[in-house]
Design goal:
This protein is of the alpha/beta class. The protein contains eight helices and 18 strands.
């Protein structure tokens, strides 16, 4: 079963908390702080593999999680890092962030890897806070939170040439004749239910990858037939081979115009791809006359082809290869040449603003991306940690803002999951 689009959720690991500890050794007087740092949380990577051709493995496994880093320990022992998680996807997979629609990566080469969720940094132990003015710090830092994202994985097959056209025009037969794809064929529409790839090897040693795409019909870009599911695979093709049947079942020129209109309406500038127009099924009765009329309307001569008798097969594959060599790669829509991943950092944020609102229970709640992220790193399990948090909030102007909006002595203020009492 071909699954070429799925939505997954990735959750990287949280960094381990730093430790608050003091050296206790009967042979060492006043040993001082010895709390170690927490370990880094596990990150999640996607790696492209050429031996995969479907996203079937994600049909049920929709949530990918990495382990948290371990907490720091006494004697300056660091916590263990959370193991990274590496997930294999087929070559040609595009990774998009569902919330923003931003393309994170286009994995085209075998072994190409990208980090989609960065593990949180481990918190610092109290050893890191030792100074000449504070020789016995009783504060430590919590681990940085990991990232949580919903990603869209979309497979767009890697092919140099794509066979397009109405159902039953001979696309699968041509692919079988020129490659070892061994695609099932039959004399009825929509025999091909999934894209098929094959490697065409020429006698002179050159080769290219060709894709047989399920038959398109009028309205395919709107969801009719099977085309809407597989038009995305045409986007990577540098050359389109447009097969038009000369069997007389449909008007060839009308069929040709309909498919070109569908390619245009899809919206990925597929109409700008170089196209080789092929008159297929030339063994049909009256095919020569229909081809002459078809070429007259086209304004140029189409390439005659009969895959069953191998008429025109060699000439066509050489023509395809020559055109591929002269055609540059077309960039995919929304994919930039340089894709930059944003790595979470609690000490910086695009938005420094925050707001204070009162909930139905009368509690003043502080909301803000940066201020909440910074406060989450402060360990409030000790009195020194609470003082550190309150000092930080005072520097951010929280006290003045509370006074301005009408907070009174004894009111409860909350940031993250920590509550404290406001005092003027």
């Amino acid at each position: 079963m071909l699954i070429d689009r799925c939505v997954i959720e990735v959750r990287s690991g949280k960094g381990g908390d730093g430790a608050v500890s003091f050296l206790q050794d009967r042979n060492t007087a006043k040993g001082g702080p010895d709390g170690g740092n927490g370990g880094r949380g596990g990150s999640i990577y996607l790696v492209a593999r050429r031996n995969l051709n479907t996203l079937y493995n994600f049909r049920h496994s929709r949530v990918i999680m990495a382990m948290d880093g371990e907490k720091g320990m006494h004697k300056n022992m660091y916590g263990r890092n959370g193991p990274d998680v590496t997930v294999e996807v087929p070559c040609g997979t595009i990774v998009t962030e569902e919330k923003t629609g931003r393309v994170l990566a286009d994995l085209k080469e075998d072994g190409e890897i990208v980090c989609v969720a960065k593990g949180g940094r481990g918190g610092r132990g109290n050893t890191c806070f030792k100074s000449s003015r504070n020789r016995i710090p009783r504060i430590a830092e919590n681990g940085h939170p990991g990232e949580k994202k919903r990603l869209i994985l979309e497979l767009k097959m890697l092919a140099d040439a794509g066979l397009v056209g109405y159902p039953s025009v001979g696309k699968s037969t041509f692919l079988n004749v020129t490659t070892k794809a061994n695609v099932p064929t039959a004399d009825y529409p929509f025999t091909t239910l999934a894209p098929n790839l094959g490697v065409v090897v020429l006698p002179d040693g050159r080769s290219f990858v060709m894709a047989d795409l399920p038959g398109l019909i009028e309205g395919a870009h709107e969801g009719k037939g099977l085309g809407i599911r597989f038009l995305r695979h045409v986007e990577r093709c540098r050359v389109l081979v447009h097969l038009v049947s000369m069997s007389g079942e449909r008007d060839p020129y009308e069929e040709y115009c309909t498919i070109n209109e569908e390619l245009k309406d899809y919206g990925a500038e597929l109409e700008k791809r170089p196209q080789i127009v092929v008159a297929s099924k030339m063994d049909s009765e009256g095919a020569e006359e229909r081809k002459k009329e078809f070429d007259k309307k086209l304004g140029f001569e189409s390439v005659p082809l009969c895959s069953l008798t191998h008429q025109g097969v060699n000439e066509l594959v050489y023509q395809i290869e020559d055109l591929i060599e002269k055609t540059p790669f077309f960039p995919l829509q929304g994919v930039n040449a340089e894709t930059e991943m944003k790595v979470y950092d609690a000490h910086e944020s695009a938005d420094d603003s925050y707001e204070i609102v009162r909930d139905p229970h009368g509690v003043w709640v502080i909301h803000g991306e940066r201020i909440e992220a910074r406060a989450a790193l402060i360990n409030v399990t000790t009195d020194e940690g609470v003082d550190q948090l309150l000092t930080f909030l005072e520097k951010q102007g929280v006290d003045e803002k509370l006074k301005k909006i009408g907070a009174k002595d004894g009111d409860t203020v909350r940031i993250n999951q920590f509550d404290f009492t406001y005092a003027e």
